[in-house]
Design goal:
Blueprint (H helix, E strand, L loop, with lengths): L2 E7 L4 H11 L6 E7 L5 H9 L5 E6 L5 H11 L4 E5 L3 E3 L3 H11 L3 E9 L10 E2 L4 H8 L27 E3 L1 E2 L3 E5 H7 L11 H11 L3 E12 L9 H20 L5 H24 L2
Parallel strand pairs: 1-2, 1-4, 2-3, 6-11
Antiparallel strand pairs: 4-10, 5-11, 6-10, 7-9, 8-11
Helix pairs in contact: 8-9
Amino acid sequence: MSVAAIVVNYNAGPALQRCVQALLGGSLKPEVLVVDNASTDGSASRLNQVYGNHSGIQILYNPSNLGFAPAVNRMVEQTTAEWILIINPDCVIGKDSLRLLKGALEETPAAGLAGPAVRDTHGRLEKAALRRFPDPWNSLVTLLGLWRLGRWIPWFRGVPVQPGPGERQPLKADAVSGACMLVRRQAMVEVGLLDEEYGLHCEDLDLMYRLREAGWHCLYVPAAGAVHEQGVSSRSRPLWVHRQKHLGMARFFRKFVGPRYPMPVRWLVLAGIWLHYALTLPLAMLRR
């Protein structure tokens, strides 16, 4: 069964080449589809100089920035691959990770999506690697940092899930990291691809939630790994990305979670999202 890796690039710099090099050097080699969303840093051109004649890679140039979800969806519609790896250009997948992700999905027919243990450049497991779907309570617990007590006090279980030390077997999960996720094409087409109303961020969580609603589930595959150099593409426009993160949170809440709660709770949650935006805005401004 064929595998296609979709990489949406926007000013990812040298990270883009590292991402593609890891994909082409893996034990399971996918068809690599790089979509450049009108980058201005020359990253796609440099990639073309190195891999332009490689039979396993296609580089497509968009005249304008379509956005992440539209770029991914166009490639899903064009490829006939039965397995779709959606990977950020600042993410380097382990040599055997794609093979392990595909194997886990093949062994679990009810799983529509699988993600590896995504770590930062210091080797720390990212909180998004294994997580629960957010609701008002677990989001608050996470924001306050009390989620770290959830291993001992169930009441304090937040959005992140702390896997046991030395865990190697695939785990059923609400959600995994959107920085690197292998999706069963059948499942993705069934639920309707990525929601293009998200500017950037939370479209991955949206997809995973819709998969669950349709009877599929996600898998966290700790034996597979990837290293994520967060924020490479966002460095050229940190304020826009910061706003999109919070717009994504608000859209996800209104779309899936909000209808279960009375109006005053909805207002409080949305107010909390935008209060968090305001309080963290100075940090985003420092990244300019």
